[in-house]
Amino acid sequence: MLTPMVDRRDLQQRLDDLAHQYRVPGAAAGVLVGGRVEVVATGIAKLGTSVPVTTDSVFLLASLTKVWTATLVLQLVDEGLVDPSLPVNHYLDPSLRLANEEVARTVTVGQLLSHSGGFFGDAAEPNIRSDDAVEKIVDSYRDLVQLHRPGALFSYSNSGYNVLGRLVECVTGSTWDDALRTRLIEPLGLGSTSTLPEETMTRPLVVGHVPAAPGSHDLAPVSTWLDPRTSGPCGGTLAATPADLLAFARHHLENGLAPSGARLMSAETTRSMREPHVVQPDPSRGPAWGWGWSIEHLEPRVVGHIGSTCGQQSRLVLAPDHGVAICVMASGDVQGMGDKLVSELLEQLVGVGLPATPDPVEADVDVTPYVGRFRMSDEATIDVRAEASGLVASFTTSGRWADFHGDFSTPMTYAGGTTFLMTMPPVTDPVAATFLWEDGADGPATHLASQMRVAPRSEAFTRSWPRPGSSPDSV
């Protein structure tokens, strides 16, 4: 049975209403069903101006870029130039160097594609604009510590995807930007998609917005529109309109075909990106991660990705068996308006919404294995302690973490299994925090997983951490 298309007027009204409810300055949404596209927009491009957001406005894709980088890598797999099972250093020149030399020598392409490489994933991103920016950022990873053994756990990694971007450069002999342009942007006819600011600035831009102060619900425009070129492969520079993003989605729905009928990637390889490659422990995020794609539901298969950087947010989901793709792109969406709209549309068109944060569970729980200090980075530690009322997590922050959150404490409410709920200002909805054991469930939990990252117990490390460059809203 054919999936019916959404009504454009209804889509416009829903976007208008939700943007107003969530105090989002500007946003756009698009739906693709069976080759037909509807795109709507609402709001203004920047607070303090009257410039409207239109369907031709360009947004940063942020970490949605990772699916594009993964697609480039899988094209090279298709061409017999890359083997996902081989160490990534088989392809890199100069070689990847990490604090753990054995990991640098053995971590595989597939593990990086599925965010299971295990080394610290939010390294500093120096403002380098030259063509060797990606090479230089990867060269700076030599001090990145190991969070877990490669392949043992899932922990979202911007650093890992920059390494994959460098793989693309080494194998193709071009910059990541040029490879993306010649292998995807041009063959797919994406006339409003670019990575370089001198190209992007010729189009109508949406400016990002962030909290005016730590914990504030008031928003202010960002002072820097995009991230450095060093973060291109992981999601700092790629910008597009909703229509272009849906055209990229259609390429995946049609299993590697371009609008011209040319095959950019085999159907088998395209489908392999949507297969589970590692368990994702956060019950509010979906059960697994593929190569590039987050797997939101196994049956019916729904894959997607989110992104957030420089005060802009993006979300894309695909339901391949239904021929459906949905995207929302926004500025200043601190409270999750995009997730709300995408979930409603997915429920309407496919019959399932996005995975939801679990409800609290009444139970007597031995919290002893969860107590201790966990270290998210050199700028954020979490002290979990037991009080009469239950577990409490206290965050101590500095640097960019402090700019976004500041120090705070939050109750941890039991939600089943080893998952608890906590609140991280300025977001008012609870987020899941799941305790993990790298070597089996005996003794104290070895990691705390939240917001797609794992934080190991701080005593696991004796050396200092590199100073991270990504704020907690960089996804």
UniProtKB/TrEMBL annotation:
Gene3D superfamilies: DD-peptidase/beta-lactamase superfamily. Residues 12-335 form the Beta-lactamase-related domain. Keywords: Hydrolase. GO terms for molecular function: hydrolase activity. PANTHER family: BETA-LACTAMASE-RELATED DOMAIN-CONTAINING PROTEIN, D-ALANYL-D-ALANINE-CARBOXYPEPTIDASE/ENDOPEPTIDASE AMPH. This is Serine hydrolase.
